[in-house]
């Protein structure tokens, strides 16, 4: 079962910052999950549309200039990184799941991914683009058929994972509150990987492993590593 550090090892360091990604690598996470918004000609790694929860600034991310945004600190400590900075930092050492939050994918997302393969030691299959907005994923897949995509859901649909197969996704990412054995089996029969978010409790980690899920997103990758390997009982 793959362990993706959700927003990095965000139990230990400010979420979606280089400090959290460093902790994720220390924990030997198989991947990191990051959230991204386009801003000017960059993609910004940040979870919220509004800045107030994580920085001293009020208002929306999209209303700042890139220069203004770069002066902010997450929890007064860490700068807000760009996608390029994160990909350069990881340098192919683990998978990166890039979750599109506010997206205009025509703003060169794939240019950044190609750059990571050409200059930052990534294999194309290490980069997964996911979103709750399935229209964005469909457009991305149409324009770039080789790109691995992950279809997110917070529900267990009547037709289970059919929507992800329709999208030609590599994986379906489902909320831990709604994943069932029937959903996992259906997704596997369709040739899809099943990744579950956000899983921080040992009991859930064990149950999901027994269900045969392919991976979890967790804020606590070192705990997950110990639970999955049987070191934490
Ligand atoms: O990608 C899984 C998970 O991150 C989706 O929810 O709100 O934590 O970005 P959220
Ligand atoms: Mg996310």
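^ Assign residues to that structure.
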């Amino acid at each position: 079962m793959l362990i993706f550090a959700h927003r990095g090892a965000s139990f230990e360091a400010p979420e979606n910052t280089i400090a959290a990604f460093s902790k994720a690598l220390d924990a030997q996470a198989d991947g990191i999950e990051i959230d991204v918004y386009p801003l000017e000609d960059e993609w910004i790694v940040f979870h919220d549309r509004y800045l107030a929860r994580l920085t001293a600034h009020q208002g929306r991310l999209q209303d700042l200039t890139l220069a203004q945004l770069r002066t902010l600190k997450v929890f007064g400590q860490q700068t807000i990184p760009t996608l390029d900075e994160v990909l350069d930092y990881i340098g192919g050492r683990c998978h990166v799941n890039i979750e599109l939050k506010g997206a205009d994918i025509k703003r060169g997302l794939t240019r950044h991914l190609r750059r990571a393969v050409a200059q930052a030691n990534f294999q194309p299959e290490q980069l997964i683009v996911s979103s709750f907005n399935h229209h964005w994923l469909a457009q991305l897949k149409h324009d770039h058929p080789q790109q691995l995509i992950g279809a997110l859901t917070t529900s267990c649909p009547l037709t289970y994972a059919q929507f992800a197969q329709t999208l030609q996704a590599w994986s379906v990412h489902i909320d831990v509150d709604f994943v069932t054995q029937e959903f996992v089996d259906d997704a596997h029969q369709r040739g899809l990987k099943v990744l579950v978010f956000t899983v921080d409790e040992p009991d859930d980690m064990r149950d999901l492993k027994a269900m045969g899920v392919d991976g979890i997103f967790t804020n606590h990758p070192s705990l997950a590593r110990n639970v999955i390997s049987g070191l934490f009982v």
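The chain has nine helices and eleven strands.
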